Structures are given as C-alpha cells and as structure tokens.
Amino acid sequence: MRSQYPSDYNSFAWVYNQHWGQYSQKFLPAIQDLLMRPLPDDARILDLCCGTGQLTRSLSGLGYRVTGLDGSAEMLRFARQNAPGVDLIHAPAQRFHLPPAFHGALSAFDSLNHILDRQELSAAFANVYAALLPGGRFLFDLNMEEAYNEYWDGTNGIAEDDHAVIMQSTYDSRSRLGFADVTIFRRTSGIWRRSDLLLTQRCYLEADILDALDEAGFREVTTTPASRYTPAPGAEGRTFFLACKPDDAAA
Q1: What is the pLDDT of residues 54-104, one digit of tens each?
Q2: How far does the chain reach from its first CA to its final CA, in angstroms?
Q3: In terms of CATH architecture, what is 147-201?
C-alpha cells in the first residue's frame, strides 16, 4: 500500500492552468443558487484553495468582493494573471487565520479532498468558521467514494503541439486514498522536458465530514449532489456541502 505522499501543486500549476482551471466554473449555477442567493450583492467571499484563479475572476466579475487563498505559490502566480486586482493570500487551508469579515466562503473542484488528515480537515473548517461573519455560509464540494470507484482507475492523456500529459489514477479502498501519477512533457526552446509528480486525495466518509463541521461550530448542514446542477464529466459521485455559522455566533 502506498503511503500518504504530499501532492506537488507547484509542478502541476502550469498544466492545471491550461486544462483544469476552468472546470470549477461549470459549478457556478450551484454556487450562485446554494451559496450566493441569500447574500448581499457585494458580499465578501473567501475562495478557499482558489488554485489558478479562474473561478475567483468570475465571482469578482459578478460584483462580489473576493479574496483568494491557496497553499501553492505557483498556483497563485497564475491566479494573479487570471484575476488581476483580486486580493490573494498564500497560505494552506489548514493553517490560515483571518478576522470574521466574510459573508460566504467556498472551496470548489474537490480541493478539500487533497487534505489527507482528518484533524487537518477539521482545522480547515475551524479556520473558515473563524473568518465568517455571524450568519455566514460555507459551500464546498468533495469527491465521494462513488467518484473514486468510477473515475480513479485508469489512464488518461492530453496531447498538444507543445506539451503532453499522461495521468494514471488508482484508488485504494482500504486506505481510502486516491493517487494520480502525472507525467508532463513540455517543449521549451525546441527541447522537450519531462517532469513527474504525484497527486493524492482522501475519500472522506460523509459522517466524518459532518462531525468535523459540527466540531467547528457549523449548523444547518445540507448536502446536494453536484449532478443536480450540471451533467459535466466528474459530477457523478461529487457532493456539495453547505454549512452555516449561526446568526448568534460570536464575531
């Protein structure tokens, strides 16, 4: 059984920006319906694990005051290009501290599955709770076991004139860990260069997620299948969790 290797997001950032950064925008209808609908038109929004910033840019363009946060410096380098003028913070979800200033927070595209430890997931939830105003809302999506069984067992590839990507995914149901071995070939200055990296995710039980949200102080937690909003590939087995900070919580 493979161990819990940390994911190399800095090495993955260029490819992510090219091919995956736009994916989270497919869930904009769900984000607007589940998270934004009751919030002020100019609500302050925390985009947790914002990656290369395409969703951050879209939310800012809708009039929300968005702050993006990500643990990868290279992801944020692209985010600065994609979402100019948006406040961006370099910090992991498990270890950031912001004052209670946000009406809402979100984390899209199974970003929190990349947190491999239950205690660290709880820490991320507690950090979000502390950053929300009383009555604030937190929306995130996670891959559940159906998604890992369906999608994390095989090889996929991308071929372009100046780069190619091979991704081989496996899921270990005993450890509840998913592994994606990624090989990237890029042609720069006429020379092809190869890099290899590993991305790792944890499949959490719904009960563990709900317990962690409760421990952080969240209430009124609801779940919604992502497939209700979009037939996009990968929506099956993905679940949205919406959690609320009580109106009478201390700011």
Answers
A1: 999 999 999 999 999 999 999 999 999 999 999 999 999 999 999 999 999
A2: 45
A3: Single Sheet (2.20)
